[in-house]
What does this fold into?
Amino acid sequence: MSLVNERARIVSNDQIGPRLHVLTVESPQIASAIMPGQFVHMKVPGRNENILRRPFSVYARDSEAGMLEVLYQEVGELTSYMPTLSDGIIETIGPIGNTWSGPARVHDGACGNALLVGGGVGAAPLFLLAESLKQLGCPFDVVLGAQTRDALVTLRRYSDLIGCEPCCATDDGSYGRSGFCMSLVEERLDQGGIAQPGPYDYVAVCGPEPLMKIVAGMAHAAQVACEVSMEKRMACGIGACLSCVVDTKSGKKRSCVDGPIFDAGEVMW
Ligand SMILES: Cc1cc2nc3c(=O)[nH]c(=O)nc-3n(C[C@H](O)[C@H](O)[C@H](O)COP(=O)(O)OP(=O)(O)OC[C@H]3O[C@@H](n4cnc5c(N)ncnc54)[C@H](O)[C@@H]3O)c2cc1C
Ligand code: FES
It folds into this structure.
């Protein structure tokens, strides 16, 4: 489906953790078309002095009800203003970007063993991928990292989907492994799958760039295909301004239209 600019109606906007919120909007065209890994570009209403849209991954969608959920973190001017929104319309462009190739590989008949690694709000764009893998009957494990127990806001949803708890790490040790989640990824790559014993065929990772870089290196060392979601700062979101460039082995690429999903081995970290 080509891009649409949809007037998405705010349905709810709830705080679910420290500086973490889930925004639900009614956006039937985008909800029915969005694929795992793609994102939307939202014009936050009431901030006319800040005309730039903001990119957000889609955390969940209900295509029958026409609903989209975005998990967002307050980090700066617009995301700190967004919790004040309780109703109204958000002009939303989407679906934008490419998709994780995990499900595509499955469609090709290669149902590999997958490991999904989400750091912080980076867990959000992996949830639609997890749902796809589950629907297709493909084995996968999940590693989640967050600063604290309270910030592990996607834990319940992943647990419900996979029927057991993902492997978790918190920076302060308040839940799961103490420290960054890379040690859990190293362990999994070493020991193999939980859902299905044996080596992994595919790793998908989203989170802070240092996390993605380290996991990419681990996957490379283990000779496992790895994809990353490069969440660069974006202005236009349609490939025109070059604000979101990623250096790759085949030259400069725009994260918005050539990504956001990249082969980790292609990225010049
Ligand atoms: C494809 C894509 C998907 C994204 N999905 C999500 C999501 O699901 N949930 C979510 O909370 N955020 C997501 N982001 C990041 C989100 O777009 C930014 O946090 C938001 O634009 C910040 O706007 P602001 O006005 O609050 O911050 P600003 O005032 O513009 O900036 C505040 C601080 O945030 C930093 N920042 C801004 N944009 C980014 C970025 N893209 N990556 C890293 N740091 C940034 C700035 O460098 C600055 O330090 C995504 C970004 C991309 C490109
Ligand atoms: S945001 Fe303008 S080219 Fe990507």
Summary: The chain has two domains: 4-96, 102-263.
